[in-house]
Specification:
The protein has 267 residues and is an alpha/beta fold. Helix content is 16%, strand content 12%. The strands form three sheets. Strands 3-4-5 form a three-stranded antiparallel sheet, with no helix packed on it. It has a three-stranded mixed sheet with strand order 6-7-8, with helices on one face. Strands 1-2 form a two-stranded parallel ribbon. The chain is globular and about 60 Å long. The protein binds flavin-adenine dinucleotide. The site of flavin-adenine dinucleotide has 22 residues, from strand 1, strand 3 and helix 3.
Length: 267
């Protein structure tokens, strides 16, 4: 989307046919888990021509003073609007959704079966190099022991659709998705001792309070931060719970106990 957005602005007369096996614009966001948000301020994200969001600063919750972060639904609506109101309106862009690119200048509709040949005069741009593999569409790379009768493995998407509670939640992974899963469970009243978080030692996380579009919100911060420093990340298998201060990050040392792990307390 960002490439096409720039191309139609900077290459006179260029026309674009976008091909995606998904049903619309938005890429992996269309299948993302419902409680995902950007991990950064909305103003940092999106296509060059059109800001995402209204540049609002949050006034409640654990991120008070930080810029808004778009939800999955806001990101999808944004891409849909870019597609409809900018790309299609320009008459220079077409979206071939629900189509699989097969290689060799060929793609096929996954709905009608119609096959398309891309003419030699067109450039092919493979824009899926950085596409993430997401749990909703990928088998877990591990097995569950045969004697673990009660254990169910679910993609993170299904966490929001559980029919009944579980005695224990084991969250596997160390990136944004796993972190979101832990925070979501905590924010829904799950006891931290019932969450087992399995993750490697390596991950580092940016303190979002330090990476804001402008200085304003940071100045507005009054002792609120969301930093996770090396000390909290030093165990390969640990219980999820409130992050303590990190001596390596002075601003993170201002984090009030429990402020990041129980956002619903502020509702
Ligand atoms: C949970 C999550 C949160 C994220 N949060 C952020 C964030 O806050 N900020 C940030 O900058 N980045 C974030 N990212 C990174 C993310 O990769 C980018 O935001 C961006 O959306 C990636 O765009 P993309 O076009 O590279 O990949 P995608 O959005 O995955 O799009 C690639 C598309 O190519 C299609 N495709 C692939 N192969 C074929 C084929 N052969 N035929 C037809 N179609 C095909 C796929 O269906 C897919 O829709 C996040 C990623 C995840 C998973």
């Amino acid at each position: 989307m960002a490439f096409t957005d720039a191309l139609i602005d900077h290459a006179d007369g260029a026309r674009v046919a976008m091909v995606d096996r998904r049903h619309g614009a938005g890429g992996h966001w269309l299948e993302a888990y419902p409680f995902v948000r950007l991990h950064q301020a909305s103003l940092f994200y999106g296509v060059a021509s059109t800001p995402l969001g209204d540049g609002l600063v949050q006034h409640r919750g654990p991120e008070t003073g930080l810029y808004e972060r778009a939800s999955k639904f806001e990101v999808c609506a944004y891409y849909e609007s870019i597609l409809n109101n900018r790309f299609l309106e320009s008459d220079r862009v077409e979206l071939f959704s629900a189509c699989e690119y097969l290689g060799d200048r060929t793609f096929v509709s996954l709905v009608s079966g119609e096959q398309f040949e891309v003419p030699e005069r067109c450039r092919i741009v493979d824009a899926h190099y950085l596409a993430p593999r997401i749990p909703a569409e990928t088998r877990p790379p591990f097995d569950v022991a045969d004697d673990a009768d009660d254990a169910r493995v679910i993609p993170v998407n299904d966490l929001a659709r559980l029919g009944h509670s579980a005695d224990e939640y084991v969250v596997v992974g160390s990136g944004q998705t796993a972190t979101d899963a832990c925070v979501w469970l905590l924010s829904h009243g799950v006891d931290p001792n019932s969450i087992c978080w399995i993750r490697p030692r390596e991950p580092w996380m940016l303190n979002r309070a330090m990476v804001q579009p402008a200085d304003g919100p940071r100045r507005a911060l009054s002792g609120v931060g969301v930093g996770v420093g090396p000390r909290q990340l030093s165990h390969s298998r640990c219980r999820a719970g409130p992050a303590g201060p990190s001596p390596a990050h002075p601003e993170a040392s201002q984090v009030p106990p429990g402020s990041w792990s129980r956002p619903t307390l502020d509702r």
